[in-house]
Write a structure and sequence with these properties.
136 residues, mainly alpha, 64% helix, globular, two-stranded antiparallel sheet
């Protein structure tokens, strides 16, 4: 039950952060409505972060930049695999990166800083959940 709760927490937080991120990005493009968006299929994809929890203890002794690069590589692997699988099932991937730095439209190298920081932020979220006085 603990793993399911965390799966849903990570999925929900990922969804919320993505809506905020895309809303702020639209503001920077001049859209004062700050319309943010995501896809509901992202809940289980972000929820997959549960499988990164065991990695934290192994990475703790390493410098922050090595941990960040490791998380970045894993996040890109999950994003690419998810996009590929969804394209097989649905006929197309819900997201499609079209910039020149994309890999088959499933990932974009442009997002490296964001995913690097998200991975490091995930460590803090994981630690926070572990410190709660009740089990989640």
């Amino acid at each position: 039950m603990k793993k399911l709760k965390r799966f849903l927490i990570y999925g929900t937080i990922g969804l919320v952060v993505e809506v905020i991120y895309t809303g702020l990005a639209s503001l920077l493009k001049g859209d004062l409505s700050m319309q943010g968006f995501t896809f509901l299929i992202m809940i289980p994809i972000y929820g997959l972060a549960i499988f990164l929890e065991p990695l934290h203890a192994k990475l703790r002794p390493h410098p922050w930049w090595i941990r960040g690069l490791t998380y970045l590589a894993l996040i890109w692997t999950i994003e690419y695999s998810s996009g590929y699988i969804l394209a097989l099932i649905l006929g197309k991937c819900p997201w499609n990166y079209t910039d020149t730095l994309n890999v088959n439209g499933y990932i974009t190298l442009r997002m490296a800083p964001e995913w690097f920081l998200a991975g490091l932020g995930f460590e803090h979220l994981h630690d926070f959940l572990d410190r709660l006085p009740f089990e989640i």
